[in-house]
């Protein structure tokens, strides 16, 4: 554990970040989705340090970030043609592929499962660190377990300051929600975690049916019921309930509809009505309101359509109660 967590900037601090990785330390760094907490995926002690920093259960597997499609063979075996098709189409990008792991890949990375999840991130900073370190980097979101995912360096420090070696400030994550995870080990591809790459796109590219899996017997990142949650209580309101709601001084709102509710400006955030822009800003809005010391954050319910499916998945976990 570090007494303080320094903020680095690339390219000037690439050598320092690389030295931390080679020493088995964790470095938070931007991907295009959210900030990830990176460590050497071939070093069991380094991977354990991720779980320790995040207070994350050891049975929860990590995504391994690689630099090229050719690197898939190092980490995975029996790679089907559909995996290469999707990799060629979407990498670098917000798509993660679940594959059968190579025998040497540590159970520490895979949560004891015989599969490994791989991705090439669309982030120049992250790719430069992978290449400089010369190893695959395991990297879940750079936050305490179940807390709001970070989309900027300041969000990382909210929960991990003093717990990791460094954070590389690469600006704001462009996508804002985590990658789509697709299981390509079976006959039919299955989406294990919805994300920016939707089912219709995958069906079009693969020219086959793509299903959603219930995850029975299989744990993947982001699959627990309670996740992405602020310290403040969160409740969801339908548009009709929102119109009738009388807000008090200590309450906040993330709205989709244009509104004139009597709330302090800093406690009222209106996000875009397009899924792409809403997803980019959603976690940041939660971070903003969580700092206000509110009694409750209300979130207006999202449309129940395919284009909002991934965001409804995240929202359902944000408002899930124990």
UniProtKB/TrEMBL annotation:
Q: Does the keyword Ubl conjugation apply?
A: no
Documented EC number(s): 2.7.7.87
Q: Does the keyword Cytoplasm apply?
A: yes
Binding positions for ATP per the UniProt entry = 56, 60, 115, 141, 149, 193, 228
**What are the alphabetically sorted keywords of the record?**
ATP-binding, Cytoplasm, Nucleotide-binding, Nucleotidyltransferase, Transferase, tRNA processing
Task: Give the chief site where it resides.
Answer: cytoplasm
Q: Which Pfam families match?
A: Sua5_C, Sua5_yciO_yrdC
Q: Which residues form the YrdC-like domain?
A: 11-197
* GO biological-process terms attached to the record: regulation of translational fidelity; tRNA processing
Gene3D superfamilies membership: DHBP synthase (3.90.870.10), Threonylcarbamoyl-AMP synthase, C-terminal domain (3.40.50.11030)
Q: Which InterPro entries match?
A: DHBP_synth_RibB-like_a/b_dom (IPR017945), Sua5-like_dom (IPR006070), Sua5/YwlC_C (IPR038385), Sua5_C (IPR005145), T(6)A37_SUA5 (IPR010923), TC-AMP_synthase_SUA5 (IPR050156)
| Catalytic activity of the protein | L-threonine + hydrogencarbonate + ATP = L-threonylcarbamoyladenylate + diphosphate + H2O
Name of the top EC class for this enzyme: transferase
Q: Binding residues for L-threonine, per the UniProt record?
A: 33, 65, 119, 139, 179
Example GO CC term: the record gives: cytoplasm
Query: Its domain of life?
Result: Bacteria
Protein's cellular compartments: Cytoplasm
SUPFAM superfamilies according to UniProt: YrdC/RibB (SSF55821)
Coiled-coil positions: none
GO molecular function, a single term: double-stranded RNA binding
Summarize the protein's role.
Required for the formation of a threonylcarbamoyl group on adenosine at position 37 (t(6)A37) in tRNAs that read codons beginning with adenine.
The record, for NCBIfam families, names: L-threonylcarbamoyladenylate synthase (TIGR00057)
Which family is this sequence assigned to? Belongs to the SUA5 family.
Report what the protein is called: Threonylcarbamoyl-AMP synthase
